[in-house]
Design goal:
With 347 residues, this protein is of the alpha/beta class. It has twelve helices and twelve strands. The longest helix is centred in the middle third of the chain and has 14 residues.
C-alpha cells in the first residue's frame, strides 16, 4: 500500500473493524469482503468512467507511466487532449485554499473524489496524512503511480465512493470535496437536493468536532448561464438558473432521460444547505477565475471584491456590456454572478 492508515478501516455497512485476510478486507459481523488490488482496497466494483482525459487515452497514460515519470508522460504527449489536461493535473496551486482553513500540520485530511490526485498531492506537502478516495479505476491507477514516483508516503488511496466510506466517525480534521457535490445525485435515486444533503451529512460524520469541510464548486447564478452558456455538467443551457421543476422538464426535452440532477446553488443556497446538513459556520469566498484555478480567493462578505473588480476588469470591451458591468458593481451585485466559490464549513 502507499501508506498504512493511522486508523483501522471499518465496514461501510455495519461499522465493525475490518480484518485483512488472504488479500481481502473482511467484516467479521456481516461477512462482507472487499479485494485489495495492487495494495489499494476496493469498496466499489463497476463505476462509470469520468475524467479530464478520455478513457482510452487515460489507459495509455497509465501504461506509459509504468516506465516513465508521470509528469513527462502528460507534458510530452502527442495527444492535445492529454496536454490540455496536464496543466490542471500538474498544478499544485489548485489547493492553495488550504491556507484559509487554518489547520495545523498534524491534521488528517480526506480528499473525496480525488481524481488524478492533484489536491491530495498538494495537501500531503502540508499535512500529516491524506486519504485519497476515488471510484474510477483508471484515476486510482494514475494516483498510485504518481504518489509512488513522488515518494509521498503519507498518502493512502482507497477505491471507493462517498456512499461507501470505511472510516470511523470523527476521523478527519479536513474533508475536501472539489468539484464533487454537483455530481453526487447522478448515480443515486431520489430528489437531487436531498441526495446532496445526505452526502454532506456523510462528510460531516467523519469530521472531528471543529473540523472543516472544503467545497470547490460553481455558482448557480454565474452571469454566463443567463445568456445561454451550457451547464458545465449536463451540457444543457439555462438549466442552472431555471426553477428546478422547469430545469428538469427542459433537460428531459433536451435528451437527458434522468432530468436535471447536477444542482448548483447561489452563495445563500450553499449556506442554507450546509447549515441544514449539520455544519455550524459557513464561510464563502469567490474563487477566481475558477475553483480549479484559484488565483484569487476573495471573501464574499465585505468590500475586497470591488477593489479586485476595478483592477482586473478595467477596460472591458463593449459600451453596453461595460455599462451593465458598472451598474452591477455599484449596486454590489457583480460578485454574486461570478463563476465559482470556495466554501469552508465547520462542524
Amino acid at each position: 500500500m502507499i501508506a498504512q492508515l493511522e486508523e483501522q478501516l471499518v465496514c461501510p455497512g455495519c461499522s465493525a473493524p475490518l480484518e485483512e485476510k488472504s488479500g481481502r478486507l473482511r467484516c467479521p459481523c456481516c461477512r462482507e469482503a472487499w479485494p485489495i488490488v495492487d495494495g489499494i482496497p476496493e469498496f466499489v466494483e463497476e463505476f462509470p468512467y469520468w475524467g479530464e482525459i478520455p478513457a482510452e487515452q487515460m489507459r495509455e497514460v497509465n501504461r506509459a507511466a509504468e516506465t516513465r515519470p508521470w509528469k513527462a508522460v502528460l507534458l510530452d504527449s502527442a495527444d492535445p487532449k492529454v496536454r490540455r489536461a496536464a496543466e490542471m493535473i500538474t498544478a499544485l496551486g489548485r489547493a492553495n485554499w488550504h491556507l484559509l482553513a487554518n489547520l495545523p500540520p498534524e491534521s488528517r485530511v480526506l480528499d473525496l473524489g480525488a481524481g488524478t490526485g492533484t489536491n491530495s498531492h498538494a495537501l500531503a506537502l502540508h499535512y500529516r496524512e491524506v486519504v485519497a478516495v476515488e471510484p474510477v479505476r483508471e484515476r486510482v491507477e494514475f494516483m498510485r503511480r504518481r504518489f509512488t514516483q513522488e515518494g509521498l508516503s503519507n498518502i493512502k488511496i482507497l477505491r471507493s465512493s462517498l456512499w461507501k466510506l470505511p472510516f470511523p466517525p470523527e476521523s478527519f480534521d479536513l474533508v475536501a470535496m472539489n468539484g464533487v457535490l454537483e455530481w453526487v445525485a447522478e448515480s443515486v435515486a431520489g430528489d437531487p437536493g436531498e441526495v446532496q444533503e445526505r452526502a454532506l451529512r456523510k462528510a460531516a460524520s467523519v469530521l472531528k468536532p471543529g473540523g472543516c469541510l472544503y467545497l470547490g464548486i460553481e455558482n448557480r447564478y454565474c452571469a454566463g448561464y443567463f445568456i445561454g452558456y451550457p451547464d458545465p455538467h449536463s451540457g444543457v443551457p439555462f438549466v442552472t438558473v431555471l426553477p428546478r421543476f422547469l430545469a428538469n422538464w427542459y433537460s428531459r426535452r433536451k435528451g437527458l432521460a434522468g432530468g436535471y440532477r447536477n444542482y448548483l446553488y447561489s452563495s445563500r443556497g450553499y449556506r442554507k444547505l450546509l447549515l441544514r446538513s449539520g455544519f455550524s459556520r459557513v464561510e464563502v469566498y469567490l474563487a477566481l477565475p475558477s475553483y480549479n484555478s484559484p488565483r484569487f480567493l476573495i471573501p464574499l462578505d465585505g468590500d475586497a471584491y470591488s477593489y479586485y473588480a476595478r483592477n482586473q476588469h478595467s477596460g472591458r470591451p463593449g459600451r453596453v456590456r461595460n455599462a451593465i458591468w458598472e451598474v452591477l458593481l455599484r449596486l454590489k451585485l457583480l460578485k454574486y454572478v461570478e463563476y465559482s466559490f470556495a466554501i469552508f464549513a465547520y462542524k
